Amino acid sequence: MTLKANAQQVFDKVSQACQAAGVPESSVKVIAVTKYVDSSITKELIDAGATDLGENRVDRFLEKKTQLKDEHVKWHFIGSLQRRKVKDVINEVDYFHALDSLKLAAEIQKRANRPIKCFIQVNISKEESKHGFQVEELELVLPELATYTNIELVGLMTMAPFDADPTTIKAIFDQTEALRQTIQHQGWANMPMTELSMGMSQDYPLAIAAGATYVRIGTAFFK
Ligand SMILES: *Cc1c(COP(=O)(O)O)cnc(C)c1O
């Protein structure tokens, strides 16, 4: 299929998932993960309706943002970020999805020139290969994050195991949404915690059913 047809199919599937979940379409944003393609294909995707772009590598993020500087899109950094690269990229992002350690938070606090919208990455599935805080850690981590004036914690981000069955994936997404609500109700000043970044090409309908507000979709656009 053409890129445009793929994009239409993704957007249609997202709106169907929203209807099924009983949420307005405007409550779910699609982040087009463009890490697989160059700027010209990314531009085609913007023309096909993409409003939010996601990249997971600092060099490619910066390159694309420069090449596509005239486009009115939001820029999401979705990959794990090494501390030494924070200064290169953090002031260029609209959203950072992978806050996964206190050391990284301290570096962001130091380098940011404004409060940066961040998602706390949580390792709900407890896979060793996955980044993110363990749920049990958060009790100690949140009071520390609450002291960082240059970090605005807009929500949680998680990734489901690649090969899990739908029931397991649903349970992980439901748990993430419950955790988001718990933190939101704690009422920390820099933690609006209204957003949930979860769902990729394989599982985004399940994520929307569980309350995702940002889905990060790559492969489905380019197959
Ligand atoms: C690559 C990537 C995605 C998109 O995955 P697809 O399976 O290609 O849709 C989403 N989130 C993160 C963090 C990624 O690195």
Topology:
Blueprint: H1 3-21, E1 29-33, H2 39-47, E2 52-55, H3 58-67, E3 74-77, H4 86-89, E4 95-99, H5 102-111, E5 116-121, H6 138-145, E6 151-157, H7 166-186, E7 195-197, H8 204-209, E8 214-217, H9 219-222
Parallel strand pairs: 1-2, 1-8, 2-3, 3-4, 4-5, 5-6, 6-7
The structure holds pyridoxal-5'-phosphate.
Walk me through the structure.
- By secondary structure, the protein is of the alpha/beta class.
- The protein has helices at 3-21, 39-47, 58-67, 86-89, 102-111, 138-145, 166-186, 204-209, 219-222; strands at 29-33, 52-55, 74-77, 95-99, 116-121, 151-157, 195-197, 214-217.
- It has nine helices and eight strands.
- It has an eight-stranded parallel β-sheet.
- Helix 2 links the parallel strand 1 and strand 2.
- The N and C termini lie close together (8 Å).
- The model has no long low-confidence stretch (mean pLDDT 97).
- Pyridoxal-5'-phosphate binds at residues 33, 35, 56, 78-79, 200-202, 216-220.
